[in-house]
Write a structure and sequence with these properties.
heterodimer, A: about 375 residues, alpha+beta, four-stranded antiparallel β-sheet, 11 helices, about 15% strand, B: about 1100 residues, eight-stranded parallel β-sheet, 42 helices, about 45% helix, elongated
């Protein structure tokens, strides 16, 4: 900063130097007496909080007092949430799906099915959310995450015909045409079919699974759109190819319901929102609470029928199904409550420690200050 | 002759600086000398263009790059730039340089009057060539270095502000035509940076055969940039132009000084660079270890393209490494430099705005450990007041003259002084102008004694004596003052035809040359005056016989005309002439201490700075000033290292004794250390002996060591009898010592310039001795007392601010990027960024930089008043405390801790969908809050900016996630943020995580404050505790007993009005001085300080000056 032009450091009255920077001509600055404003004189009214034991102690106590009850509340809420998890990967040979997992082949035309039996000890009272969970599946891999074409998914016809380069190597199939939807994410759509039935007295009552309302509203209505509206999807997707690992083309994902077919199929939308961690769960179905007083899922025996289409063994993955009720704070998450309790206790403890220290040193300080 | 030309050209263009011809010949008006007189060698000189900007249009990029690479960060940026292909424009220096360019342009194009073919014509400044005759009018600026040819003033002089310049004898022109008729050449030395040295000769060709030669000295040289005053116009010839002017040469020699803050920043950056690289390497290695199994590398759902598959592993690994570098590069605070520059730039306005010291300057004065100050004009007013004179042992005081006694003796004295006045001549008006305040004081004093100096007319000095008679003395020769001889003389012819040589000078330079006179009495008087802190001068004279006079004339003229070694030869001539004096008497002039000088010194002391006074004065005088300015206290044990002492003992003995004395208390444990407060006095002669690399080599070096060791343990050092160069030597010595302390030099005169240039921070005082010092300084202040505010307040605040700024930048970037690193372990080391690109980009720019910038601008951890009042606070930041490794490590650890908390907090607390966005959320909320905790000075601007930043983050996120942005090819963030905000646990988690991440810092702060509070923290407490301002104390004055006839002078410095408990307490008071009854008085008890001030100790503390000096 001192490297101002040397002309700037001359005698008074020599003004040609000009205020080139901070260290500029004294003459000009001098003649212009600075304003006596609070801002320029750095005298703005200010609040000066200082962290001392005196001010921090009460704060810690208060934090402790607030956090511990919140934590307890959260913990109790979380504990009230019922959750049931079943692994159907079929790694162990005792598992019902062992043979499906072992004999999986991309080329088989006949889907392999298996059934898992389980028992719910307690009834699930409110709405039940059915998730599928995958482990060791890197949906957050960089190559994977970017391998999609959002404008294609938004129904842009040009992108449909000519998908983004990002989708490579799941972009086009030679001699067939562009893949719709393109990219690795879409290509690896979870395509196991899960059906839940209640076993009572040997008879099998299917549980009604709602497959709509599982995706974010904005995703379904804004972000994802079918090309040319939801009318004739077969025609709209004419000239495109289905993703290599899919068994059906995109316009047959839910042929029954035009509001849930093509790109706006909710299973598809859920899958397309990539998970941040390699172990994740995604919402599969919702089991609505019935109007009457009976629990959504009564306690008892159930059977889960799986159409086993999705291979995970090659990368040591796991597949699970999770049944869970939710509360105002979402799914089961004891960690939050525990964390609150812990932090609250730590604050409380620190407050006590500080209190002791404060008193000890305060008295010492007042005598120790004199020699200075 | 051709060969000569060739040689000149070769030496000019091919050889280095030292091989150039050592003198240049300037043909005035570009006229050849008459044939035969001398060979006409047309010489080439640079034009008068000034380039002060560092860069020109075409060398901007390479040169700027080189400059920028001095900062490691910038080199790093280039690498990143190459990888990322993002343009990082070096805007800030470019802008400044552009401003300089503009300033240069305006200077280069300002019009100049040049005499050509007998007429004055206008031309542009940069077209000026060496040899041009220039006309400069009053209040105009000299366009280049000029030799004065003629002045409109009758006495052939001109004024440049306070200094006067003389036309070389026999040159006097009135009109352009006359100037044109001048036929002369000037021989002078090649340009050199010393502003006050100039040796040349002018040869005037007339019709006669023999050219007339006249000497030219610095009194004939007008420097570029100075302004003509009190003179209607002058004619002058250009001799140094453009970048060869002395100012430009001086400018060039100043290199950029890099501050300690910047050094720390660079060191930290290296660490972070290492972290960055090691992170990238670790991740690359882990990636390939992890990918060993092909199922992990390429699971069925995530295949590579053919191209990627075919790429060799080495290249893939390298690109991965680079990708990691890019991913983690945000850990290097890119915007830090920008912010620091902005902070410097904007922060400097606060100093220029400061009412109390509005002047050109900029606060970068923190961490100073050594302050070197000049005495005269810096500590003291340099406003001399004549106190007394002593002639033949009789003392005359201006007030006492009314009695009208003793005339004859005074007459002689008066003559002497009259002559002195004569030398420096006066203006026809009643007041006398001189560049030396001493002389002004003498003339004024003599006037009060009844002898008025009238004027210098036609070489005759006229003096109106007591009887209203005019006495005339013809001024024949002036033997100029120089700091080596420390005396000056005039040779005059009295009206009775006697030749007299009068000499005034320092006692040490006069007494050895005295052969008769009342030496003893005068000496005693001089000693006494010196002890009282007065500047003493001795006056002696010598009668010259006409023969002796002729001889002297010859000697002088020969010496003056020589081009080489003129200084030396002049000195020899002076030496030969100035001898066999008859002592007349002595004068005493008081130089008052500057307002609040003692206060300032005291404050600097308490701030833990070592103050060295470097002066050319006598030891006694200087010591007295030191006592008055509280540099030495009564309790100070003075160690002398003077010539007197070294004459008695050998230097070696003295040194070893000193080191024993000083270092002894160290070995004794604990308490006694503080009891000893040492002051060292050393004089120039001894210093030379110490610094001299004697024949024994290593042992001489050890003297230096011992000297350094001794002086380091002294709280104050006084170096008297210093030559200007020795001042610089001392500064250099300290600078090069083990700890490499930051030095500050402050001075006002030309003799301080070398010291100012040498020190890290050079401060010039715009004093009476001209502005040479201010011109060469980094900062200029009007008064010494401003140093206190500059260092203690602005320096302190600046340092606190910038230190926090730097540390915070590192912290927030660690905090931001470390989760990225952790995330790599969960995403298969695939370089997937945790944050959305928009957030990555905006994080440093918009979300987090404004609050810290503002913090760095307006933070006042302690109020300015407190800072000013309690200088010991400065100790807290001395030695770069806030930018040391432990602090840096603490911040980094804090950053890592917070990063871990955010990452794993989000990991455990959230379901997957909102994980990514939550990470960011915490990040930003917490950074904001943390900064809020560190801010101690909440102005509305802080509130505005901090909350504003958070708000901006929220708004931005809403916008970013709320709209499908058509220009993006992905919509990953769509609605994520709103989704998250709508979930209850997200809020709870945010609160929790912020609390957790802030806990350690708060606990650490509170604990530190409770266990070992720094002075700053105590001060904060005090300002917080006592808000009632006590009425300002009546100013304590200390009458100085100088005898009945002298006016009372107040040496005691008025106290600053105190506020409540934040009274400046003497931090190093000796236990013995505390009154027994004082009892335990803590800082906290508000009665303490007040009681203290009433106690004797307090008084002794505040006003030791008079007690010690009488």
């Amino acid at each position: 900063m001192m490297a101002s032009g040397y002309n700037a450091k001359e005698e008074d009255g020599h003004t040609s130097g000009g205020p080139s920077n901070g260290g500029a001509a004294g003459g000009t600055v001098k003649s212009r007496k600075p304003d006596n404003t609070a801002f320029k004189q750095q005298r703005l009214p200010a609040w000066q909080p200082i962290l001392t034991a005196g001010t921090v102690l009460p704060a810690f106590f208060v934090i402790g007092l607030i956090f511990i009850p919140i934590g307890i509340g959260l913990f109790v809420t979380s504990n009230n949430i019922k959750e049931f998890e079943i692994d159907y990967t079929g790694v162990e040979n005792t598992s019902a799906c062992y043979s499906c997992a072992q004999n999986f082949s991309w080329n088989s035309t006949v889907p392999c099915t298996c059934s898992m039996h389980f028992t719910l000890e307690q009834p699930f009272e409110s709405n039940v959310f059915m998730y599928y969970g995958l482990s060791n599946f890197y949906q957050n891999h960089r190559r994977y995450v970017k391998s999609r074409d959002d404008s294609q998914l938004n129904g842009d016809p040009t992108s449909l015909a000519n998908p983004s380069k990002e989708c490579e190597p799941y972009r086009t199939i030679d001699q067939v045409g562009p893949i719709a939807p393109c990219g690795a994410i879409a290509n690896s759509l979870f395509n196991d079919t899960l059906e839940l039935s209640y076993l009572a007295n040997g008879s099998k009552t299917p549980v009604a699974l709602v497959k709509k309302g599982i995706a974010w509203w904005t995703d379904k209505h804004v972000k994802f759109r079918n090309p040319g509206g939801n009318g004739n999807l077969t025609a709209a997707f004419q000239g495109t190819s289905k993703p290599v690992n899919w068994r059906v083309p995109v316009y047959e994902l839910d042929p029954m319901d035009p509001e849930n077919n093509g790109f706006i199929n909710e299973d598809f939308i859920v899958w397309m929102r990539t998970a941040a961690l390699p172990t994740f769960r995604k919402l599969y179905r919702i089991i609505q609470k019935k109007a009457d007083q009976t629990p959504t899922l009564a306690s008892g025996h159930y059977v889960l029928d799986i159409t086993y289409n999705y291979p995970v063994r090659s990368f040591d993955g796991r597949k699970r199904v999770i049944l869970s009720t939710i509360s105002w704070m979402g799914g089961k998450n004891p960690f939050l409550g525990i964390a609150y309790i812990t932090v609250g206790s730590v604050c409380f403890f620190l407050a006590v420690v500080l209190f002791i220290i404060h008193h000890k040193y305060d008295s010492r300080n007042s005598s120790a200050d004199i020699p200075n | 002759m051709d060969l000569g030309v060739l040689r000149t050209l070769i030496s000019r263009y091919c050889a280095g600086e030292e091989n150039r011809v050592d003198s240049r010949t300037v043909y005035i008006g570009h006229k050849e000398p008459p044939p035969g007189a001398e060979a006409y060698i047309p010489q080439r000189y640079p034009d008068n263009r000034i380039v002060s900007s560092n860069y020109t249009f075409w060398n901007f990029i390479p040169k700027n790059l080189f400059e920028q690479f001095r900062r490691i960060a910038n080199f790093y940026f280039l690498v990143i730039f190459l990888v990322q292909l993002i343009i990082d424009t070096p805007t800030s220096p470019g802008y400044e340089d552009w401003l300089r360019h503009k300033a240069d342009c305006s200077i280069n194009e300002c019009p100049v009057d040049v005499v050509q073919q007998g007429k004055a014509g206008r031309t542009q400044s940069h077209k000026l060539r060496v040899g041009d005759v220039v006309v400069v009018k009053e209040d105009e600026t000299f366009p280049c270095d000029l030799v004065l040819l003629s002045s409109s003033r009758e006495d052939g002089t001109c004024y440049v502000t306070t200094t006067y310049y003389a036309v070389p004898d026999t040159l006097a022109f009135r009109t352009d035509q006359e100037v044109e008729s001048l036929h002369a050449t000037i021989e002078c030395e090649q340009p050199q940076p010393d502003l006050y040295k100039f040796v040349g000769r002018i040869n005037i060709y007339t019709d006669r055969e023999e050219p007339v030669s006249r000497p030219l000295g610095s009194e004939n040289l007008l420097l570029r940039g100075a302004t003509l005053k009190n003179t209607h116009h002058i004619y002058a010839v250009a001799i140094y132009t453009g970048m060869e002017t002395k100012m430009a040469l001086n400018y060039q020699s100043k290199s950029q000084k890099r501050s300690a803050v910047e050094k720390s920043m660079n060191a930290f950056l290296i660490v972070y660079l290492c972290i960055l690289i090691s992170k990238a390497v670790i991740n690359t290695v882990l990636k390939y270890a992890w990918q060993w199994s092909p199922d992990r590398d390429e699971p069925w759902y995530n295949h590579r393209t053919e191209n990627e598959r075919q790429r060799p592993v080495v290249i893939r690994a390298f690109t991965d490494f680079l990708a990691y570098m890019v991913l983690f590069n945000y850990i290097i605070p890119v915007s830090m430099y920008v912010t620091v520059e902005m902070q410097k730039f904007l922060g400097s306005y606060f100093i220029t705005w400061d009412e109390e010291m509005f002047d050109e300057e900029l606060g970068e004065g923190a961490q100073v450990e050594y302050v070197f100050t000049d005495k005269t004009g810096t500590l003291t007013e340099n406003n001399m007041e004549f106190i007394e004179c002593c002639v033949d042992g009789t003392v005359y005081v201006p007030h006492a003259i009314c009695n009208g006694q003793i005339l004859s003796a005074v007459k002689e004295e008066e003559t002497v002084d009259g002559i002195k006045r004569g030398f420096h001549q006066g203006r026809p008006t009643s007041f006398y102008i001189s560049s030396s305040p001493d002389e002004v004081a003498l003339v004024e004093g003599m006037k009060r004694l009844g002898y008025t100096y009238l004027r210098l007319k036609d070489g005759y000095m006229e003096i109106l004596n007591k009887d209203d008679e005019i006495e005339r003395f013809e001024l024949l020769h002036v033997l100029n003052f120089d700091s080596v001889r420390r005396r000056m003389s005039v040779i005059v012819k009295s009206s009775s035809g006697e030749y007299l040589l009068f000499c005034k000078g320092a006692d040490s330079s006069i007494f050895p040359r005295v052969v008769s006179g009342k030496v003893e009495q005068v000496k005693a008087r001089v000693e006494q005056n010196a002890v009282e802190g007065l500047r003493t001068l001795c006056v002696a004279f010598r009668r010259l016989s006409p023969d002796e006079y002729q001889e002297a004339c010859l000697l002088l003229n020969q010496a003056k005309l020589s081009l080489q070694d003129r200084e030396q030869r002049l000195a020899q001539a002076y030496d030969a002439i100035e001898r066999d004096f008859v002592l007349l008497g002595a004068t005493a002039v008081e130089d008052r201490l500057q307002e609040k000088a003692a206060d300032t010194i005291e404050a600097l002391h308490k701030a833990g700075m070592k103050v060295w006074v470097l002066t050319g004065d006598k030891m006694e005088t200087a010591a007295a000033t030191c006592y008055a300015s509280k540099l030495f206290r009564r309790s100070t044990q003075i160690l002398e290292l003077t010539k007197k002492r070294t004459e008695e003992q050998s230097l070696h003995d003295v040194m070893s004794e000193l080191s024993r004395t000083v270092l002894r208390p160290r070995s004794v444990s604990g308490l006694s250390v503080d009891c000893q407060d040492f002051g060292l006095i050393i004089d120039g002669a001894t210093l030379t002996a110490i610094l001299k690399p004697g024949p024994e080599g290593p042992s001489a070096g050890s003297y230096q060591e011992v000297f350094l060791e001794v002086s380091r343990n002294c709280s104050a050092v006084l170096c008297c009898r210093m030559a200007p160069l020795q001042k610089a030597q001392i500064v250099k010595l300290i600078k090069a010592s083990k700890e490499h302390p930051i030095t500050l030099a402050i001075g006002d005169g030309a003799n301080d310039v070398s010291m100012i240039l040498e020190a890290h921070v050079g401060i010039g005082i715009m004093g009476k001795e001209g502005r040479q010092a201010a011109r060469n300084s980094d900062y200029a202040i009007p008064k010494f007392k401003h140093l206190k505010k500059m260092l203690l307040v602005h320096g302190h605040l600046y340092y606190i601010r910038i230190a926090e700024l730097v540390q915070y930048f590192f912290y927030k970037n660690v905090c931001f990027i470390f989760p990225q690193f952790l995330f790599q372990f969960f995403c298969g080391f695939s370089q997937q960024p945790l944050y959305d690109t928009a957030y990555l980009t905006l994080y440093n720019i918009s979300f987090t930089s404004l609050p810290i910038l503002l913090y760095s601008l307006v933070e006042q951890h302690v109020s300015m008043d407190t800072l000013k009042k309690d200088p010991s606070l400065y100790k807290d930041i001395a030695k770069n405390t806030l930018l040391r490794w432990p602090v840096f490590l603490y911040w980094t650890c804090l950053g890592v801790f917070d990063a871990v908390v955010f990452f794993f907090g989000a990991y455990f607390l959230f379901d997957n969908t909102t994980f990514t966005s939550n990470g960011q959320m915490f990040g930003n909320w917490t950074f904001g809050t943390l900064l809020a905790l560190d801010t101690h000075h909440w102005t509305w601007i802080n509130h505005f900016v901090i909350w504003g930043s958070l708000l901006f983050y929220v708004i931005f996120s809403l916008l970013w996630g709320g709209i499908i942005w058509p220009f993006l090819n992905y919509q990953r963030m769509y609605y994520v943020f709103m989704q998250m905000l709508s979930s209850g646990p997200a809020w709870l988690s945010i609160i929790l995580l912020i609390t957790v991440s802030l806990l350690p810092d708060i606990v650490k702060k509170v604990l530190c404050r409770a266990m070992c509070p720094t002075a700053t923290e105590r001060a904060q407490k005090l300002t917080e505790g006592t808000a009632d301002p006590s009425p300002p104390d009546p100013r304590r004055r200390s009458p100085r007993g100088r005898g009945a006839d002298s006016a009372q002078v107040h040496l005691g410095v008025p106290e600053a009005p105190g506020v409540g408990g934040s009274e400046p307490l003497p931090h190093r008071l000796l236990p013995g001085q505390w009154p027994e009854g004082g009892g335990p008085m803590g800082l906290r008890s508000s009665a303490g300080p007040r009681a203290l001030r009433l106690s004797g100790a307090g008084i002794a503390y505040y006003a030791p000056g008079p007690e010690t000096s009488v």
